[in-house]
């Protein structure tokens, strides 16, 4: 969902280049090491962070890790940045860019986990290649992630969930966890679940939340 433009958000983003990378050149790898206090920490990326409730909560809860919010909209990036500054989340960086270029922004084997939360379902068949669980995106995630890298996915869209299950299976991924009603299943995953803004909205209406965790097979197999 596209957010209404907020001038304050644009201004805030422009004032903090140390926290937000805007429109990076896909031909130049980003020096992430210089943007974190300790780049030896595990690195986790959320693709499509929206207003950032999920990624900022993660960064606050796990100060021993580094996090990157990848978000295309400037207003959304500004909202995330405001929270980052208010909570002094030094382990969080924001990048305003297109997820289609994710393999250009990160070195191979550089991240430990990628999150896909409530991505645009792109329901029309002709838009299949835009879905963030399409095989070309999976190949890019595998490049960025370390061997046996983890992918976590949540959605309220049953069609996208069914498609994603098939796409990941066809890609040869291993499923560690699958749920068709995350909020009504008693499990350890739910105990540690962090809600996004969309998730809270849909779950409060008693709509099922679909989730899966999967790992890539080692690249040298």
UniProtKB/TrEMBL annotation:
Any one GO CC term of the record: tRNA methyltransferase complex
CDD domains associated with the record: AdoMet_MTases
Keyword flag Mitochondrion: no
EC number: 2.1.1.33
GO MF annotation terms: tRNA (guanine(46)-N7)-methyltransferase activity
Keywords annotated in UniProt: Methyltransferase, S-adenosyl-L-methionine, Transferase, tRNA processing
Binding site for S-adenosyl-L-methionine: 46, 71, 98, 120
Stretches for region Interaction with RNA: 126-131
Swiss-Prot/TrEMBL catalytic activity: guanosine(46) in tRNA + S-adenosyl-L-methionine = N(7)-methylguanosine(46) in tRNA + S-adenosyl-L-homocysteine
Organism domain of life: Bacteria
Listed pathway(s): tRNA modification; N(7)-methylguanine-tRNA biosynthesis
Binding annotation for substrate: 124, 156, 196-199
Record family assignment: Belongs to the class I-like SAM-binding methyltransferase superfamily. TrmB family.
Name of this chain's protein: tRNA (guanine-N(7)-)-methyltransferase
